[in-house]
Amino acid sequence: MLMRSEPFTEVHRLAQQLFGAPTAGTWTHPSAMPADAYRNGDEFVIVFDLPGVDQDAIDISVERNVLTVRAERRPADLGERAQVTLSERPLGVFSRQMFLGESLDTERIQATYHNGVLALRIPVTEKAKPRKVAVGTAATHTDQKVLNS
């Protein structure tokens, strides 16, 4: 049997059920869908931790550069005889929205899910990539006359 040692855990759990979980997590009360994002060369990567979520319960959409990731963590089928003594893992539907910059090619997003981690890879558009600009020679004297006329 598990014993609780934190006196306000139950109050906090009830408040979360009543008012909803916070969208951004803290160390003591993490988000149900924590994420990391970074640029790696010519792609932007967003990684979500979704342990216990089935791959078919994940929905990803993009509309007007707004990325929406929706996932559902369903309760385990414990059988009729099971008596739950502790239930702290969040269940239900979780959703995150992120605004993507214009420099990302949202038509070519790739998503993979492995060991409870969802990884989205979004290519950077060609116009946003660094490029060389050729330097030409200065205008000749006759070209200057045409420009000044």
TrEMBL record:
Domain SHSP: 26-140
Top-level taxon: Bacteria
InterPro entries membership: A-crystallin/Hsp20_dom, HSP20-like_chaperone, Small_HSP
Entries under SUPFAM superfamilies matching the protein: HSP20-like chaperones (SSF49764)
Classification via Pfam families: HSP20
Family the entry assigns: Belongs to the small heat shock protein (HSP20) family.
The protein, known as: SHSP domain-containing protein
